[in-house]
Amino acid sequence: MADIVDSRLKEKRGWPGVVLRVSLALLGLFCCYRLIVDSATAGVSRLLQTTAIFQSKLGPADMAVSLTPKDPEAHYTRALALVNQERLGDAVAELQQATRLRPHHYYEWLDLGVTLDRLGDQTGSVAALRESIRLAPFSAQPRWQLGNLFFRQGRYEEAFAELRLGAKSNPTLFGGMVELAWIAANGDVETMERLVHLESTRAHLQLASFLAKQRQGADAARQIKEAGKPQDSQDRAIIHQTIAVLLAAEQFSDAYSAWAVTHNLTNDSSPNGVGHFLNGNFLEPIMQNDPGFGWQLAVVPNLTASIDPTEPYPGSRSLRLDFGGDSPPGNRLIHQLVLLQPNSRYSLSFMSMAENLVSGGPPVIVAMTATSENAKVLSQSEPLSPGTSGWYTYKLKFSTDANTSAVIIALQRLACHQSPCPVFGKLWLGGFSLVKT
User: Fold this and answer.
1) Is 343 helix (H, G, I), strand (E, B) or coil?
2) H or E element in which residue 398 lies
3) N or C, where is the chain less crowded by C-beta within 10 Å?
């Protein structure tokens, strides 16, 4: 009897444990159910948000917010959809809700600041943008947007303090900052430089490129000088582009100043380049893809060019040209841009030697004006005779008028009486010398 009673007492004592285990199991099942439901709801909400973004529609964003009202991303997506529909006031409300639910994400504060600015609430915009900067101090866009807001208010010192930091984080913004500085400085280069605060070789070169396009040639050349040695191929490409712009604008003297700095010619006997013919004895190599001054070689069919040790006189070298077929007459096979004084007379001498040179359009050396419009030939040498034995000296004289500050000395062929007009054989050139008479 005692055993039966004891068994029943044990059963009674075990009931709470059973109930607890069952309760925990039910709670676990409920939690799993809620987790599954919440996960499914969140998944559907994310899908709706993605649809709203890709289709630029508000409906899917509305459904996402209704499904997950406490999801900041849903409110942010709906805000973007509202901005696309120009419902800026409603968009601000959604962005504010997103920042309340997720206060530590800078890009929601950024979009809130931009949208408030569009609504004309500049005080609220500044506050939101400053919060975005606080959360992401090294991100470019918050500072760039705040700088632009200050710029439109005419608060230039504050504006460029932010714009500089934005461009430092994202160097692709530097060009836009330079354009804004040009406007703020009203075209005054000194004020512009102060606003931009040039701190690197690339910055000086980018400013030089901009100034060249504004026809500020002297300042562009000065910036290239202050930049120092180019650091990489991109720096060199900016320099080449700047010089090409100056040449196209016929700012020849400024283009020479910029070119000379990058070619170690600042201590030359003619520092401004006027009346100075470069590499007339071909002792230096001819650089390819180097626009500016010095010899420029054209890419011409059936023609190869090389520096040759054959010398017209001791201590010099020559340029050897090998012709092997048809090439367009009139093309500048090789040329050099030379700065000269207006209203002056000059004499150019050079030496030539030919071997088996045969053509109906023989080569000549010409001096022509460097202007792009109304260019004219000032003088032309005799045809470089294929019948000469050894080196032969040629001379041509020409004068510059009041509007001529640069000429092009070029080798080109005379027109043929038939087409095609092939040329065969070898030609050597050397001993170029230019003097003012």
Assistant:
1) coil
2) strand 392-399
3) N
Contacts for 157-164: CB closer than 8 Å, 24+ residues apart: 159/184, 160/184, 160/195, 160/196, 160/197, 164/196, 164/197
Is the pLDDT at 37 greater than 60? The verdict is no
DSSP state, 419?
Answer: S
- The answer for residues whose C-beta is within 8 angstroms of residue 414's C-beta and 6 or more apart is 329, 361, 362, 363, 364, 383
Stated pTM of the model:
0.80
Whether 198 has a pLDDT exceeding 50, the answer reads yes
Tens digits of residue pLDDT in 287-309:
888 889 999 998 888 899 999 99
Return phi, psi of residue 199, to 5°. Answer: -130, 5
Upstream peptide bond of 312 is cis (omega within 30 degrees of 0): no
CA dihedral over 121, 124, 126, 128, signed as positive or negative: negative
Both structure tokens of 265: 């010619």
Q: Which two tokens stand for residue 136?
A: 């992401």
Closest of 313, 321, 395 to residue 354, by C-alpha: 321
Residues recorded for the chain: 437
- In this predicted structure, the answer to whether residue 38 has a pLDDT above a threshold of 50 is no
H-helix or E-strand spanning residue 399:
strand 392-399
Strand-by-strand arrangement of the 406-413 sheet: 294-297, 334-339, 406-413, 363-369, 377-380
Residue 37 CA: distances (Å) to CA of 42, 68, 72, 362: 8, 12, 19, 89
Cβ neighbours around 298 below 10 Å, total: 15
Q: 263-277 burial string, b = 16+ CB within 10 Å, else e?
A: bebeeeeeeebbebb
Instruction: Give the Cα separation of 162 and 160 in Å (integer).
Output: 5
Could you tell me if 117 and 149 are in contact, meaning their C-beta atoms sit under 8 angstroms apart?
yes
Q: Which residue has the tokens 């011409």?
A: 300
Q: What's the order of all strands across the beta sheet hosting 318-326?
A: 303-308, 318-326, 422-436, 345-359, 392-399
196 neighbors 215 (Cβ within 8 angstroms): no
Residue 337: φ, ψ to 5°: -90, 130
The string of DSSP letters for 125-136 reads HHHHHHHHHHH-
Asked whether the beta carbons of 434 and 385 are under 8 A apart, the reply is no
Of 37-41, 180-184, 361-365, give the lowest mean pLDDT range: 37-41
Instruction: Tell me the one-letter amino acid at 26.
Output: L
